[in-house]
């Protein structure tokens, strides 16, 4: 009978090892699938972030172009105003000269 007990014990050990390996293989596959899904999700999120950054950079470039255009226009307006002030000052000078002549001639 001891021989039968030994065979039954060995068979149970072998079956236990086989079942443990099967469970390990199944869990390893599930872990790999979960890891793959997680990696895919992370890569997708990184793609969305990259797209957002690209949009922000395009908007920033457009804003820079608008700023440069506006700065150029302000410079042109300042120059025009400076010239207008010079003309006004000359006209006022002529008016003052005429007024002085009129006062002295009276």
Number of strands: 0
Question: What is the molecular shape?
Answer: rod-shaped
> Which residue ranges are poorly predicted, with pLDDT under 50 across at least 5 consecutive positions?
none
Largest sheet: none
**Mean pLDDT score:** 83
Strand content: under 5%
Percent helix among the residues? over 70%
Query: Count of DSSP helices?
Result: 1
* Alpha-carbon Rg, integer: 45 Å
Structure, explained:
The chain is an all-alpha fold and 106 residues long. It is rod-shaped, with a radius of gyration of 45 Å. It is 98% helix and 0% strand. It starts with a helix and ends with a helix. It contains one helix and no strands.
Topology of this structure?
Layout: H1 2-105
Question: What's this, in brief?
Answer:
This protein has 106 residues and is mainly alpha-helical. It has one helix and no strands. The relative contact order is 0.03.
Characteristic terms for this protein:
mainly alpha, rod-shaped, 106 residues, single chain
């Amino acid at each position: 009978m001891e021989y039968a007990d030994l065979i039954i014990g060995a068979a149970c050990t072998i079956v236990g090892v086989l079942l443990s390996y099967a469970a390990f293989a199944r869990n390893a596959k599930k872990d790999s699938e979960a890891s793959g899904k997680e990696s895919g999700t992370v890569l997708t999120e990184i793609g969305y972030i990259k797209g957002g950054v690209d949009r922000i950079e395009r908007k920033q470039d457009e804003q820079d172009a608008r700023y440069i255009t506006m700065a150029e226009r302000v410079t042109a307006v300042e120059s025009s105003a400076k010239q207008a002030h010079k003309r006004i000052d000359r006209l006022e000078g002529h008016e003052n000269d005429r007024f002085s002549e009129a006062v002295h001639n009276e």
